[in-house]
Amino acid sequence: MKFELTKSFIEDIQSALEENNIVFIKAQIFELHPADIADIVKHLGLDEGKHLFDYLDEEQAAQTLVELDEDIREKLLELFSPKEIAEQVDQLDSDDAADLLGELSEQRKDEVISKMEDKEHASEVIDLLRYDEDSAGGLMQSEFVQVRSSFTVKRCIIELRKQAEEVEKVYSIYVVDESDVLLGVLSLKRLLFAKPTSLISELYQSNNIKYVKTNSHKEDVADIMKRYDLIAIPVVDYQNKLVGRITIDDVVDVMQEEAEKDYQLASGITDNVEATASVFKNTKSRLPWILIGLLGGVLSSLILQNYEADIQINPVLAFFIPLITATGGNVGVQSSAIVVQGLASKEFMFKGIFKRILKELLVGVLIGLICGILIFLFNFFTNTDIIMGITIGISIFIVVIIAAIFGTLFPLILNKLKIDPALATGPFVTTTNDILGLSVYFMIAFMLYN
Amino acid sequence: MKFELTKSFIEDIQSALEENNIVFIKAQIFELHPADIADIVKHLGLDEGKHLFDYLDEEQAAQTLVELDEDIREKLLELFSPKEIAEQVDQLDSDDAADLLGELSEQRKDEVISKMEDKEHASEVIDLLRYDEDSAGGLMQSEFVQVRSSFTVKRCIIELRKQAEEVEKVYSIYVVDESDVLLGVLSLKRLLFAKPTSLISELYQSNNIKYVKTNSHKEDVADIMKRYDLIAIPVVDYQNKLVGRITIDDVVDVMQEEAEKDYQLASGITDNVEATASVFKNTKSRLPWILIGLLGGVLSSLILQNYEADIQINPVLAFFIPLITATGGNVGVQSSAIVVQGLASKEFMFKGIFKRILKELLVGVLIGLICGILIFLFNFFTNTDIIMGITIGISIFIVVIIAAIFGTLFPLILNKLKIDPALATGPFVTTTNDILGLSVYFMIAFMLYN
Q1: Which value does ipTM take for this structure?
Q2: pLDDT value, residue A369
Q3: How far apart are CA B102 and CA B129, in angstroms?
Q4: A443 in contact with B, Cβ within 8 Å
Q5: Which candidate, A268, A281, A162, places its Cα nearest to that of B333?
Q6: Same domain, B41 and B100
């Protein structure tokens, strides 16, 4: 039940574009959802993509632009004249229009705006451009339906007819007073069943309605809408005047970005790299973490230098360096990940950090014991030097516990410092655990052998 | 604009519960959203939590149960009698009811169902219990509004009044034929503006409406709803008969789980561990990865054994083991993460795996060069043995490239094998890269020194 893009389909489109086979292309395209057309454009050359736009109706073309990945849209828009872009922007909801304009250079932006035909729309969009893109104001759209509480149902429906023209999807009607202050919400369902003569003030729901301020952070908006299962939320300014609404589809995108960001931080990638990003951008966003790791490795080597003699006498010590570092790293990352997700889902707000650490300590002891015993046994059967077995066994035990504790504390500290705790699950924890682990390991070896 | 739970609030509630201060509790609770009440329950003792339910109205109580985390709900429900649970279930939408019943033991489930008063509701719920919980059937609810295409608007609104009773949120109306086969969708907005005499068949939208089959996988449902910005999607059976609908809030939860799962796999945690999970469950879900890492460490040690002599002669070799393993691991995980996200967002379907690997190769060469040179320089200035610098420099260079390639290939292979590629970003890649890296490093050392 979902359009499946195939290689042959793309090839058909491409040849049709070459031959300017209007009929074929229109037939293929006209019923497709913009998201699907965007997918096609993505797999065409830039010029082909631009060419395809000539065959789309205004609405389709505009929506397709919105659905494209930013990097492709950017390249593609360079092939559009300001006039052409303005035509698209005129078609878009104010929030999409603002996002699109926000990606253009200042100068180009002004050119496009000056070419927009719908002046009222243009001024709405300009208003939205003022807001920080990470704020509710940056997410909201100016298209929504509002009525006065003093209206009758009949009058309300007439109002609705007027306003609903430009509002693509009406989920609920916002009720305001004379000075546009948000009073409450009215569902279409209730309106549909109400007597034409009854007053809105008798119908709408006013107690604890959910709304956000224009300066609320987009992640808080997402939290609220998710928490209360909302499909749209009204946005008010500092005077509680209704200025916009945010719909769930935009919030779904925010959640998506959030999840991807955490995942990337956990994998040691600084800023969003699509698989399609250039080699250089790709490298740039990955190098920082690698260099941190490199630095960690250098520090480790400096630590090991102090034990040069011991290694020379007993090279077996060196054999287990990877085991120590790997195990410490793995345990640490796990601990951090659990804390990060706990923080995200607000699982332990005031539930006591201490309790959390205590539990993690127990887990550490358990895992440490199992690993320590296993590794001791392995040594016992493969290596005549029993002290080595004891050394590595005890070391693993302690390293695991330290890693668990550190992996738990670190994200909590970051969180206190208002730094994204997901950073903790990145290479940083692994690196630190390498250093901690090796120090412990060789200290113990030093004690047991000398 | 969002209820903020405070420690003192919890304490007030607790003492009020002790004193059976009905007035106070009612006053605190009655306007709260179930999600907020669930939050309160979470921070109360089990018995206190159960006690609080006595003060909630039926609707609140039922919804609060739904909002609770599964593990807490499970414990709490043990304090409820089958009769009490049945009363809650009667209040719930069919999908929530089915989910709740699905968590009970077979025997308890039957007891509860037998105690349900709304028999029609009960049979709907029983139907839903038949579906796999990962399928659209497992997500859908039986509450939706459907009308015949032959109806007039007037008749339709009357129908609506009847049906809308039990349908909490009406987003759009589904149009079916005499045998309930889905024909199309009609928005409330259009209905609101239509003449009472006009026919539904003239109003509803029929071309490429989005729907899913009962057996579609929930992740595909999520993809479709996200892709097409839907807030609700109809579900049809194998005969295309309309049997239910899935609303965006349920899909948002699916997306959330998905993201968390990937993140956990990336951090080496097998199945979902909330921070609140028991020490044992916690350990159980983490141990597998740790043991894989342990095994990897053992293998590394066996590889290193072959170079015992070299390490004895030149212990400096050992100093850089952590550097080699850490760098290889970090690069590998990055490469995998990028591929995993690329796969998730379907970025390179037929865009050529080869192209992808080539690019990754270039990135690897770039990062490898930078790291290799840096580490060579570090050695050059801190260590008289120039060969050591060359050895480690070249090794890092090669290790990074191998890690990048392997990290890219591995998730692609998993994906081909229909295994979740996110597994690749877990400790597995790091472990493998440790082994590969060390082999390269010591082989090169062996060649250069002998």
Answers
A1: 0.81
A2: 94
A3: 7
A4: no
A5: A268
A6: yes
